[in-house]
Design brief:
Distance between the termini: 24 Å
CATH architecture of the largest domain: 3-Layer(aba) Sandwich
Strand content: 25-35%
Largest sheet: 7 strands, mixed
Structural class: alpha+beta
Mean pLDDT: 94
CATH class of the largest domain: Alpha Beta
Order of helices and strands: EHHHEEEHEEEHHEHHEEEHEHEE
Strand order of the largest sheet: 1-2-3-4-5-14-6
CATH topology of the largest domain: Aminopeptidase
Number of domains: 2
Number of strands: 14
Number of helices: 10
CATH superfamily of the largest domain: Gcn5-related N-acetyltransferase (GNAT)
Length: about 290
């Protein structure tokens, strides 16, 4: 028996606890991610006899099912009922693949959906040839601008929103083609969503911010990084400073996927990821 229920803020405690128990470094397995993108992919709870799942719809109009419990408690008939020949399990971490027999399931992955994982200490140090360009940009920033920062909070929502609006205007895209709405809600509900962030000022003017959250005990995910492009080197500075703030607590930084965007792929690759964390799609063999 299956039952669908639209996900909203009232489910925060349940989802947060479920994701915490799974203890995964994948950026999708977090309540803010589910909540902030609920209008785009239409997240719903799917209740089954063997536990809870989250159902969503991807860009291909395909239903994706995210487990919230140990799949070893489900039998093959439940998998067949859930996937119904058209749906997929996604995103599935590599350590769960043994659950799906190769003679009954197709297992694939798409590099565009892989999360970029970095060693926090490397991002905090910018040492070596890999970081030469970023180190030069950082040094130029530090020598050119007088900066300050403070935690993102209710007190600086207008400042963060001014940065986001400038970033949106500079993008040349309409808000529905960017993550403007999701980032705006993250700023305004930062405390309620238990997010962590820093807003940066140059000469007391808001210039950029980073917002993220812990995925597990080892990994911190940066969900949003926005800044004014008039300050050369500000992104290098924000990533470097954020890593310094977090390195005593988290071994890894997750900068999420590139979604097939060539500019994002080039930028994220230039910071020397430790690995690309694959997210697998599981479907029934036809």
């Amino acid at each position: 028996m299956m039952k669908l229920e639209t996900i909203d803020f009232q489910h925060r405690e349940l989802l947060t606890e479920s994701f915490r128990n799974l203890n995964l470094p994948i950026s999708d397995y977090t309540f803010p991610n589910v909540y902030l993108f609920r209008k785009i992919v239409h997240y719903e709870f799917l209740t089954t006899d063997c536990g809870l799942f989250v159902s969503s719809t991807n860009k291909e109009e395909q239903r994706c099912i995210m487990p919230l419990n140990d799949l070893r408690s489900c039998d093959l008939q439940t998998f067949n009922d859930l996937l119904d020949g058209e749906s997929i399990f996604f995103p599935i971490p590599q350590e769960w693949l043994f659950i799906f027999p190769a003679d009954k399931f197709d297992i694939t992955s798409d590099e565009r959906e892989s999360d970029y994982i970095y060693l926090t200490e490397n991002m905090a140090a910018f040492k070596g040839k890999q970081y030469l360009r970023h180190r030069n940009h950082l040094n130029q920033f530090l020598s050119s601008y007088r900066h300050s920062d403070e935690p993102v909070s209710l007190n600086n929502i207008p400042a963060a929103m001014s940065v986001l609006q400038e970033w949106q205007d500079d993008s040349g895209l309409t808000p529905d083609k960017t993550d403007f709405e999701q980032c705006s809600e993250a700023i305004q509900k930062n405390s309620a969503l238990a997010l962590w962030g820093t807003i940066y000022y140059i000469e007391n003017e808001p210039a950029g911010f980073i917002i993220g959250e812990a995925l597990n005990t080892d990994t911190f995910c940066l969900h949003f990084a926005k800044a004014s492009k008039k300050y050369h080197g500000i992104y290098e500075f924000m990533f470097n400073d954020t890593a310094k703030k977090l390195q005593s607590q988290y071994k890894y930084l997750n900068l999420e996927e590139d979604m097939g965007n060539k500019n994002l792929r080039r930028t994220k690759g230039s910071y020397g990821p430790e690995l690309l964390l694959k997210k697998y799609r599981i479907s029934l063999k036809r």
